[in-house]
Amino acid sequence: MIPFLDLGAAYRELKPEIDAAVSRVLDSGWYILGPEVEAFETEWAAYCEADHAVGVANGLDALVLALRALDVGPGDEVIVPSNTYIATWLAVSEVGATPVPVEPNPATLNMDPARIEAAITPRTRALLPVHLYGQPADLDPILDIARRHGLRVVEDAAQAHGARYNGRRIGAHSDIVCWSFYPGKNLGALGDAGAITTNDAALAERVALLRNYGSKQKYVNETAGVNSRIDPLQAAVLRVKLTMLDAWTDRRRAVAAAYAEGLKETGLIMPHVPDWAEPVWHLYVVRAPDREALQARLTKAGIGTLIHYPIPPHMQTAYAALGIAPDALPLARELAGDVLSLPMGPQLKLEHVRQIITQLQNAE
Ligand SMILES: *Cc1c(COP(=O)(O)O)cnc(C)c1O
């Protein structure tokens, strides 16, 4: 059996260090915010080449609080990718704004800058690109459009820990960058966790207030905030895993390189990496015309695969009220029908990668 991803293996690799970090928090008697959270925020900001990081409860909340910090709310529109995990859209809905989808560039599968301006209306307040699969979106043209139209830019970097755009880490290219540390992400907690990074001190301060009941000083509430704090236990675990993140990314890159070389004659559509991108391969997504048959074949051979994502947000019941016809976003619909995520992760053995490649070479 070759699993799609083995989360337990990541823990086992760092078990003594993670266990020690957890014990340290338990012994400290400090279970909300405090020194462990502050240390992680400092270390995560430095890693992301950003001035500030603020830990929150999960990736969805990072997006919601980023939008709230920018005063995006009812009556506003936010431009989002048509093909993304639904959380990107849900964050916009949660603040009372409307997600307005644009289709991806067919090569990069990320938000296509050439399609953004047609979607801008007088209500548009922000652009929300996603670095899908760990591939950076084309930020410079997106930031340029935002500047010309007076829009804010929020990045959904839930899949892009450590990725670089034009040589610089994802973390502060735009107004505010949102992270998830869901266990399966490249930097994953042992439960839910998230963060924002930014170079804007006022925005960081706003999110820090909003995540903690709108309060900096206990029982003094400056704004109607929420409870969305990152847990010190998770912060302590993330600090340990952060020391391995670059090494783990290198291992993902070795897997991706093996796939790229081994699968080029198979007829599968392979990921495209532009010159300006240094992806971190959160997912290795190929496109297969006969996806269901291929997936079934791999399952029979004991190889775990997943589909990211089988139903695009505009075709979910949750978004029926937007009234977007399935074919109004044909690329998102097509991708949902043919993408397949191959096993990927820092603990995936290269001998297993070779077995997967052999299976795919012998398909058909
Ligand atoms: C995981 C993910 C999120 C949400 O993160 P959670 O921590 O699960 O709330 C948002 N956007 C994208 C693209 C994701 O992959």
UniProtKB/TrEMBL annotation:
* Active site per the UniProt annotation: K185 (proton acceptor)
Residues annotated as carrying N6-(pyridoxal phosphate)lysine in the record are K185
Identify the keywords attached in UniProt to this record, alphabetized: Aminotransferase, Pyridoxal phosphate, Transferase
InterPro entries, per the entry: DegT/StrS_aminotransferase, PyrdxlP-dep_Trfase, PyrdxlP-dep_Trfase_major, PyrdxlP-dep_Trfase_small
Q: Where are the transmembrane segments?
A: none
Q: Which domain of life is it from?
A: Bacteria
- GO BP term, pick one: polysaccharide biosynthetic process
A GO molecular function assigned to this protein is: transaminase activity
Alphabetical list of Gene3D superfamilies matching this protein: Aspartate Aminotransferase, domain 1, Type I PLP-dependent aspartate aminotransferase-like (Major domain)
- Similarity remark: Belongs to the DegT/DnrJ/EryC1 family.
Q: What is this protein called?
A: DegT/DnrJ/EryC1/StrS family aminotransferase
- The species is Antarcticimicrobium sediminis
